Structure formats: structure tokens, C-alpha cells
Amino acid sequence: MPKLDRIPHFDPRSRGYGVRELLPRRVERRQRLWALPSGAGYPIDQGQEGQCVGFGYTCELAAEPIVIDVGQAFAPQLYRLAQAEDRKMGNYWDGGASMLAGAKAAKNGGYIQSYRWAFGIDDVIDTLCAIGPVVLGINWYTDMYDTDHRGLVKVGGSLAGGHCICAVGYWPNHPDFGEDVVVWMNSWGRSYGLNGVGFIRVPDLAGLLEDQGEAAIVVDVAPKPPPPPPVEQLFVAARRSVAFHRKGAHWWLPEARAWSKREDAIGAGLRPCRLCKP
After folding, report:
1. Burial of 13 (0-12, 13-18, 19+ CB in 10 A)
2. How does pLDDT run across 203-231, given as a tens digit for each residue?
3. How far apart are the first and last CA of the chain?
4. What is the mean pLDDT of residues 64-86?
5. Average pLDDT in the 12-18 region?
6. Residue 228 DSSP label
7. Calpha distance 56→32 (Å, rounded)
8. Boundaries of CATH 3.90.70.10 in the chain?
9. Distance (Å, rounded) from C-alpha 115 to C-alpha 14?
10. Is 178 left (phi over 0), alpha (psi -120 to 50) or beta?
11. Do residues 195 and 185 make contact, with C-beta atoms less than 8 angstroms apart?
């Protein structure tokens, strides 16, 4: 069995950084699945190593809506950075890492802008529907090591340890189960669940969150946009016929009284050509 290495560590200051203020006032709870890369190395596999905190956050980084394809080798590095963050907080454990340390490691490494926390199942579901994946830190019980043939997780048995796993979707009234489920991607390769994916009933996940559970939401670093083209390439002198302008092919730059090609002007804040207006 893979080692379980998530260690609960709660900072009371996290209560001031809830995800609720980032959510819309009203969230439509509909089916939402955040895809991961389909190439080699996914679903990621930690093997027998107890590095789930690194793998859980790596799964989130690789998932939509902003895909950072960091790859399998990145997870152990992030785990070691998380252990270093734990030591800074005074947690000198022989092994394992906390969820908070994993979030700090990702932020200090420049992979995310910030992180927030979901407090309870409602925050988790609304985040999955409106923002993106959620990294879960939960107690893991022996019956959870294997799913049934449909990928459904059963919570039961004796406590095995703490696990970090990434929730990547919400599926209301799932046709196979007849009830609402949360979809998660584990870090145990394709042999777990359905090709690495498991489903957990909403009440079961709610119970795990109440049982020393935690849920982190990261604000990903958006890819940098390409630099804008030089001004001299955007604008050309207004030496065109009035008939050509009426085709709607040009936009107007008021300050320079110049014309630019429509495709170059998209996003540049230009007003439509007055001569081209219908």
C-alpha cells in the first residue's frame, strides 16, 4: 500500500483567508469536471513513497482551468520544499508534510499566486463548480484503498493515516449512483479506481472534512501574455479611400488620427472607425 504522509496542522490565521469571498454570490451547482493532461505521466503515481502532499498539489497545477504541465518528477521536489516549510513553522516531523506547508511551497516557488481555504462541503462544491479543483487533506481509512467496480469510494474500516488528494469535479445525481458525488484524482497511478479517478458521495466527503479535514484552493499563475507589437506596426497613416473604410476593416486611434487593421486592433482599446460605422 502507498504510504500516507499528510499530517494535520491548522493555523488559526487561515480562517481569515476563506474562499467564499472569491465565489459568485450565487453558484449554479451543475456537473463540472476539470480535465488533466492525457499524455505520459498522468495520472501521476507516487508509488510506495509517502509524498502525497507534493503529488496532490502537482495534480492541481496540472488540471484546468490554468494548466501548468509540471510533470511527474516535479511532485517529489514540491514535497521536499513543503517539508522545509514545515520546519520553518516549527514542525520537525520524521516524515510527512502539512497541507499548509504544501501551499506555502507552491507559492514561494512562484507556481501559484496565493491560496485560500474551503471550510466545509458547501465551500468545496461551490469552488468546484465556479473556480477550479480543490486540494483535500483528509483522514484515510482502510476501506478507501480500493473502490468498487464503478469507482465509488467506501469510507470505513480502521484509520490508516492522512492523505492528500485532488478533487477535480462535482457530479450531481450521478447516473451510476443516483446521488451527488465529488470526483477526485488520486496519485496512485491507473490502477486506482477508474484509471486513477474515484467518486465519493457528498455526505461521505462532508464527514471526512469534519474529521480533521481541510481543503485548499490555489490561485494559479496565469501564463504571461505575449508582448504587444510595436506601435509602428499597429498603425498606418490614414491614406485610404472612404469606400474602403466603409467595409469595416479599420479601427480609429483618436490621438494619432491613424487607422489600424482590425485584427491588430483587437484588445488594444481602439474605437471603431467613424467612417466604418453602420
Report:
1. exposed
2. 999 999 999 999 999 987 755 555 554 44
3. 69
4. 89
5. 95
6. P
7. 19
8. 12-220
9. 10
10. left
11. no
CATH for 12-220 is 3.90.70.10
**pLDDT for res 41:** 64
DSSP notation for 156-177: -SSEEEEEEEEEEEEETT-TTT
Contacts of 17 (CB under 8 A, 6+ apart): 115, 116, 117
Q: Does residue 258 register a pLDDT over 90?
A: no
d(CA 145, CA 139): 12
Lookup result for grid cell 507556481:
111
174 in Cβ contact with 139 (< 8 Å): no
- Angstrom distance (rounded) from CA 3 to CA 25: 40
- Phi, psi values for residue 260, rounded to 5°: -135, 155
Enter the C-alpha cell of residue 151.
469507482
Of 59-68, 119-128, 226-235, which gets the smallest average pLDDT?
Answer: 226-235
**Beta-sheet pairing, 32-33 with 112-118:** unpaired
pLDDT per residue over 167-188, tens digit each?
Answer: 999 999 999 999 999 999 999 9
Instruction: Please give the grid coordinates belonging to residue 1.
Output: 500500500
Q: Say how far apart CA 23 and CA 49 lie, in whole Å.
A: 35
